[in-house]
Amino acid sequence: MSAAPDTDILVLGAGPVGMTLALALAASRHRVTLVDAAPADAAAGDPRALALSHGARQLLETLEAWNARAATAIDHIHISQRDGFGRAVMTAADYQLPSLGYVMRYGDLAAALAERVARMPAISVLRQSRAVDWRADGAGVGVTLQQQGEVLRLGARLLVHAEGTPYDDPAVSVRDYRQHAVLAEVRTREPHGRQAWERFTADGPLALLPLEDGYAIVFTVPPAKADWLMGLDDEAFVAALQAQFGNRLTFTGAGPRARFPLALRLRQETVAQREVWVGNTAQTLHPVSGQGFNLGLRDAWELASLLASSPDPGVAATLQAYARGRRTDRQGSALFTDGIVRLFSNDIAPLRLARGLGLLALDLFPPARHFVAKRMIWGARAWP
After folding, report:
1. Span 257-292, pLDDT tens digits
2. Pathway involvement (predicted)?
3. Whole-model pTM above 0.90?
4. Number of structural domains in the chain
5. Distances from the Cα of 382 to the Cαs of 48, 176, 295, 299, in angstroms?
6. Closest listed residue to residue 384, CA positions, set 305, 321, 281
7. 134 vs 12, 42, 130, 159, 318, CA distance in Å?
8. Domain hosting residue 35, numbered range
9. Of 192, 187, 183, 262, the residue nearest 217 (C-alpha)
């Protein structure tokens, strides 16, 4: 039984959300320890593409962790439906912004955050460690960790859960969309021109995000069709993608594919005695409109803002204030993405007509378009 030094805030999960929280607290009075089950270089080769809002860039720049060289800007977003009328276009110039958002590989963002974390003496990192038990009381939390065959006991005043999606937690409500996302990077004959596409089909939304010289795609389909897509060779996969997207672009090649099931997961209570849940541990959204990761970054930022000014980071009043403050953004983002999925993931003629009218209204009525765009950029509370 080995001993480990006490810390003020123990964060389970050293992914981008956990590291963002730690960096936002680095100048505070609190010592922060990050705990992660993976080795230090685990995220380096992760090819998943993240859609980062302009608000996320502002946050990361404040923390000096914005990886500008790895980011591809989105200046325009084109929204339409397959086999139906109506479309809407959002442009950065309408909001006096350099870009609406950015696309970056997960590994590149994680590397920039990890490099910044390594420079902060107030932040400790325990790699290849996982929490196997914890007990909270009025004074703090006792956490038992396993680290490469050793058992560590660590005391903290606050335990933050930021370790990823909870798949079997009874405290989390789940709405299964019966859809899978197939991910890949693809090439097109035409340059992307910094334009993202959100194309709604009967199977589900198909998103194309500009990334370097091509696109990162999120191809949403029923599970059986995902099985079929994953089994195709590259040429047949490109043909299937072309058929789903239509002829607005010409696809010429595709890289390796991955898939994951889609569901709305919401933790009803994001705080408990000296515990708080942020990011995907608190809510996991459908990837339509790219809201989930940006919501997690806002969780980390707002939690850090409250903890920095609290002498005791685990006091109940502070945690309850955090939960109240995040309610609008969490619920608004969940309702927004869930509503889009329910409205657009079907082929019922009356709804197809309603979708077309809605897209037409967004395009012709700027206040409605601006309402949607600003919340995509800064969240349900138009952060910051």
Report:
1. 999 999 999 999 999 999 999 999 999 999 988 889
2. Cofactor biosynthesis; ubiquinone biosynthesis
3. yes
4. 1
5. 27, 28, 12, 14
6. 305
7. 11, 25, 11, 9, 21
8. 2-74+103-171+263-338
9. 183
